[in-house]
Every structure is written in C-alpha cells, then in structure tokens.
Amino acid sequence: MEGNNSYGNGSSWAEQWDYSDPAASNGAANKKKSSSGGATAKYKQKVGDGLEKTKAVASTGMKKVKQGTSSGLQWIKEKYHKTTQKH
C-alpha cells in the first residue's frame, strides 16, 4: 500500500489531517477532564434518577398490564362457561 499512497512522503491520512500539536492536545484534554468532573457527576446523577423513575413507571405499567390481562382472560373464561352450560 505504501507505493499507492497519493499523500506524498509515506504519511497516513490521519497524519495529513492532524494539524494539532500532540503535546498541546494532551494538556488541553487533561484540563477539560479535571474542570468538567463536577458537571459529569451531576449529569450522571440526573441520568441515574431518571432511570430510577423510568424503572418505577415501567414496573407499575407492567403490573397494570398483568392485572388487565388476568381480568380479561377471566371474563372470557366466564363467557365461555355460560355459553357451554346445558340446563
């Protein structure tokens, strides 16, 4: 593949388009991580709270579906027995 490289002196596509200084970008990334640590924890807490609420709502919804299905099947069973009874 080295012979077919149209970028010139054997550099890869990523090297051609990477204009930043690797040492400078590492320092900037470290500053971002340390300064946004509180914000990340805050959003993780909010997401966790949201998931707990979603779990509670889903659980309640499933209980209602289960109860509705049970009562619906019981109603069908009663209707079937009424129509098949011989007096």
Please supply descriptive tags for the structure shown above.
mainly alpha; 87 residues
In short:
The protein is mainly α and 87 residues long. It has three helices and no strands. 77% of the residues lie in helices and 0% in strands.
Task: Characterize the structure shown.
Residues 1-14 have a biased composition (Polar residues). Residues 1-87 are annotated as: Disordered. This is CDP-diacylglycerol-glycerol-3-phosphate 3-phosphatidyltransferase. The chain has 87 residues and is an all-alpha fold. The protein has a domain at 43-86. It has helices at residues 13-17, 22-35, 37-84. The chain is elongated. 0% of the residues are buried.
Molecular shape: elongated
Q: Over all CA atoms, what is the radius of gyration?
A: 32 Å
Share in β-strands = under 5%
The amount of helix comes to over 70%
Structural class: mainly alpha
Strand and helix order: HHH
Sheet of most strands: none
**First-last Cα distance:** 90 Å
Number of strands: 0
Number of helices: 3
Low-confidence stretches: none
Mean pLDDT: 76
